[in-house]
Specification:
The protein is built from 12 helices and 6 strands. With 286 residues, it is of the alpha/beta class. The protein folds into 2 domains: 82 residues, lambda repressor-like DNA-binding domains (434 Repressor (Amino-terminal Domain)), CATH 1.10.260; 196 residues, 2-Layer Sandwich (Endonuclease, Chain A), CATH 3.30.870. A 6-stranded mixed β-sheet has the order 3-2-1-4-5-6, with helices on both faces. Strand 5 and strand 6 form a beta hairpin.
Length: 286
């Protein structure tokens, strides 16, 4: 996975936010902007959210509409548009990758810090191949073998980011329920527990387990992910996955609530070494 292909999603979001700022400064509505490039108001909305690719001609026309005529100012934005259209490695998995998840894969690959809380199963970046296959088949039992294997391959491809030269910091809090709920047979679960113990020793990975014994905790709303990026002008993003879609939150007050929940989860869970002891205990019981 290249930094360029992962960064294309981030660049789309950066360019979209700058186009929105320029439009609002000029007091131009989305409808007016859409008319200028022969598009709908909803298309402008998707462009500003970074959810669609950019046509160079459209960006040029929008910049002209917004009064950006100086080449020194137009040049970097047009270059950003070109870079934002670089196809990500995950596009080759578009046959098994829902459109709403493609954005997340791109953001995940571009993040410098990933913080997650999982309650249903082990997070995808930490799954073994056998465990991932069991999760895929349990979730979609009618899948053909070829499609199931493609989904597993995609998950394993995502994991390469954790061991790359530009690996992000990854902080995961797993609810004990995720470790006790079996996916696959005993051998699969043993292999998954052993893998968690091993990967938690990596310098960029912090793994904590929220034990049943703690009782209720701040992860009451369910699983979520917090992504932070090296670009200073890109805000943190909260990712909430649903059955057929996903929510991406970037409003400061909403992100702050999830950050507080994550901080409490980290504070209330045993530390990494104690969590490894908990994993070893579960391994002995399996």
């Amino acid at each position: 996975m290249t930094a360029e292909s992962s960064g294309s999603v981030v660049r789309r979001i950066l360019l979209g936010s700058q186009l929105r700022r320029l439009r609002e400064e000029r007091g131009i509505t989305r409808e007016q902007a859409g008319y200028s490039i022969r598009a709908s108001e909803s298309k402008i909305s998707r462009v500003e959210l970074g959810r669609v690719s950019f046509k160079a001609r459209d960006v040029e026309d929008l910049l002209t509409l917004y009064g950006v005529t100086d080449e020194d100012e137009r040049g970097p934005l047009l270059a950003l548009a070109k870079e934002a259209n670089v196809a990500g490695w995950w596009h080759s998995y578009s046959d098994v990758l829902p459109g709403w998840f493609q954005t997340y894969v791109g953001l995940e690959g571009a993040a410098s810090l990933i913080r997650v809380y999982e309650v249903q199963f082990v997070h995808g970046l930490l799954q073994t191949e056998a465990y991932a296959r069991a999760v895929v088949l349990r979730g979609s039992p009618r899948l053909g073998k070829a499609e199931a294997e493609r989904r597993v391959a995609l998950r394993l491809e995502r994991q390469k980011a954790l061991v790359s030269e530009r690996a992000p910091r990854f902080h995961c809090v797993l609810d004990e329920a995720a470790l006790r709920r079996p996916y696959g047979d005993r051998a699969v679960m043993r292999g998954q527990l052993e893998h968690l113990i091993e990967i938690s020793e990596r310098p960029n990975v912090t793994l904590q387990v929220m034990p049943f014994s703690f009782g209720g905790h701040s992860g009451e709303s369910g699983s979520f992910a917090l992504l932070r990026f090296p670009e200073s002008d890109l805000s943190d993003v909260v990712y909430l996955e649903q059955l057929t879609s996903a929510l991406y939150l970037d409003k400061r007050e909403e992100v702050a609530q999830y950050e507080r929940a994550m901080e409490r989860l980290q504070q209330d869970s045993p530390g990494p070494e104690q969590s490894r002891d908990l994993l070893r205990g579960l391994l002995q019981l399996s």
